[in-house]
Amino acid sequence: MPLNIFILFCYLVGSVYSRDIQYILEETLVSEDAFAGESFHFQPMVSLYEENTGAIATGFQGDVYAILISGPTGHEKLRFNGTIGSTTDNAVTFYGGIATFKDLTLNEAGSGYRLRYIARKYVGGEVIEVAQVTGKQFSIARG
Q1: What span, in angstroms and rounded, lies between the C-alpha atoms of 21 and 119?
Q2: 99-112: buried (b, 16+ CB within 10 Å) or exposed (e) per residue?
Q3: Do 131 and 96 form a contact (C-beta atoms < 8 A)?
Q4: Three-state SS string across the chain, please?
Q5: In the prediction, which pLDDT does 87 show?
Q6: Cβ(112)–Cβ(72) under 8 Å?
Q7: CA torsion through residues 133, 136, 142, 143, sign
Q8: Within 10 Å of residue 128's Cβ, how many Cβ atoms?
């Protein structure tokens, strides 16, 4: 095989395997029936889709974390496993393109709560955010 054809072949093969896939993140289960200070009865669930095909991203290797972006007073705290940590401490891994949170709680009752979910992957020691979505508004009842 002449050298210039070999180089072209390597370039094309490298392009196929290094292509960037664009993703769409969707909240598929909303936090409802929650009480202040208790784990959400229905934990939030998100699904990740490949943008170009619309297929669920079953081969995606990464995680997703949730942040509280609105609440009734602005002093509410989102907890994961009973502790308040950094915004990325509540990350859960995608399995088959789906991630389900565990033990998320909010400390205050009220309405107007909203979470934002951010999906990320790790490439060569670098964290890359690939998609995010703002969840539907929900309420927390007194515990």
Answers
A1: 13
A2: bbbeebbbebbeee
A3: no
A4: CCHHHHHHHHHHHHHHHCCCCCEEEEEEECCCCEECCCCCCCCCEEEEEECCCCCECCCCCEEEEEEEEECCCCCCCEEECCECCCCCCCCEECECCEEECCCEEECCCEEEEEEEEEEEEEECCEEEEEEEEECCCEEEECC
A5: 59
A6: yes
A7: negative
A8: 12
Enter the tokens of residue 59.
Answer: 């081969």
Q: Which two tokens stand for residue 131?
A: 């998609």
Sequence-distant contacts of 86-93: CB under 8 A, at least 24 apart: 89/65, 90/65, 90/66, 91/63, 91/64, 91/65, 92/63, 92/64, 92/65, 93/62, 93/63
User: pLDDT tens for residues 60-98?
Assistant: 999 999 999 998 888 888 888 766 655 566 889 999 999
- Whole-model pTM above 0.70? yes
80 contacts 104 by C-beta, under 8 angstroms: yes
Q: How far apart are CA 110 and CA 26, in angstroms?
A: 24
One-letter amino acid for residue 83 of the chain = T
